[in-house]
Amino acid sequence: MSRRLDHRDLLRMNNHSLAECLQSILASKDCPSPHSKTVDTFYTSSIMSIIKKIETHIFHAAPKTNWIFISVTDSNGVQAWGEASLNGWEPILKSTVDYFATDWIGLSLDQAQQQLHASPRLPGGLVVNTVISAVAQAVSTLQSAHQNITACQVLGKKNRSIVPLYANINRATTLRTPEGFVQTARRAKALGFTRFKAAPFDGLMPHLCHTDEGKKRIAHGIDCMLALRDALGPDALLMVDCHWRFDESHAIATLKNLQPAKLYWFECPIGETYANWNATRRIRSIANDQGVLLAAAESQMGIESFQNVFDEKLLDVVMPDIKYCGGPWEMLQIAERAQDSGVKFSPHNPSGPICTWHSLQVSAVAPQCDMLEIQFEESDDYDLLQTGTQLIFKEGAFLVPDAPALMPKIDMQLLNSKPYQKVPPGVETLLYR
Question: CB neighbours of 73 closer than 8 A, spacing ≥ 6?
């Protein structure tokens, strides 16, 4: 009986030479002979496929949003895609891709995978880790295509065929009032969503919390969340994203004032810095007393950052973003560590369709997955831009595709019709100036 050779066989023995690795693999009793078709396919696809080209593509998706994609083309002429969206940093991202491409071009897919690791200590910070994450996404697609396996199988065994979704209704809500949020939520509910997230604390910053202006913004955000609960009924899951806009005391006061909203989770109330670890634990304790989970970690980079979160018992839910955390394999490791630590895993995914595709694959393989984020109605081009695959939405969830070698592709004519435009950076840029 034979088994399909996997790139993980090499990674488990990464202290040995390639020849030694293959010799050890072939010596296993359930492995085919060195002359079998399976081994020939493995040589051709995983080792002999070489990265030939890495390019950056920017699509202006909405007035405040650009989607950034990185394509990786191999020596067989196969092109795969990763997403690196980071609003306001597009020119720097492109320069970073161009700089590192010279190091990655010429690597085999397995060599690239071994070198593409995120770390909070990289000098380029979030920008460099975003580029690494996107290239890793594309490499995983090339590996699944050349091995003729499903996109999630290249990561491991599929643990679920259906991944529940929640609708992030924030960017679709242009009328920033309780009524506006309710209108958007009702549209999402009509399509089958039962889980919803909003970010209604516009313009609030930690230094404003004590001011009259800050108090008005907090009160307005609370009104929006209470209106959503009234409109959606008691059975809907409801989450609030605070985008790190609070200080500790006002985060706690707001959490208490939101008790009637019966939140499922309270997300990113304060900055995720070492100085705030004790405050984060205090907020988590109060949230848990109300039956609410504390969620965060969307911009953390690499497994070591998340290990700190687990070791310090900071959160109930971690939200790694495949665009920033290091890509598919790193995200899967994070999910496995979360499982070991008793922490829920819920990928952050408020971006474009390529990010959604890759996040779904990890969600299918992860030992547990609470739910996956989807940005609701931000861009009419969301379903048009990605042409290679079609995800099936059913009762508030995505079905995980079963067909082997599926590859998301981009409609280049549409992409080129909406080129880069300057957009404002995310709130995190304002927080840490």
Answer: 51, 52, 53, 54, 55, 79, 80
Q: Which two tokens stand for residue 231?
A: 């409109």
* Per-position b or e across 269-298, b if 16+ CB within 10 A of its CB: bbbbeeebeebbeebbeebeeeebbbbbbb
Q: Which CATH topology does 162-410+423-431 take?
A: TIM Barrel (3.20.20)
For 83-135, the pLDDT digits (tens) are 999 999 999 999 999 999 999 999 999 999 999 999 999 999 999 999 999 99
Q: Which structure tokens are listed for 48?
A: 């002999």
CB-CB contact of 317 with 284 (8 Å) = no
Query: What's the pTM?
Result: 0.89
pLDDT in tens, 2-30: 333 343 333 333 334 333 443 443 344 34
pLDDT at 432: 63
pLDDT band of 46, cuts 50, 70, 90: low
Neighbours of 306 (CB within 10 A): 26
Distance CA 341, CA 347 (A): 17
Q: Starting at the edge strand that comes first in sequence, how are the strands of the sheet with 79-83 ordered?
A: 51-62, 65-74, 79-83
Structure tokens belonging to residue 361:
């694959």
Structure tokens at 420: 């880069």
d(C-alpha 372, C-alpha 172), whole Å: 18
Query: 238 pairs with which residues across the strands?
Result: 196
User: Domain map of the chain by residue range?
Assistant: 7-47, 162-410+423-431
User: 221-230, 231-240, 285-294, 424-433 — which is least confidently predicted?
Assistant: 424-433
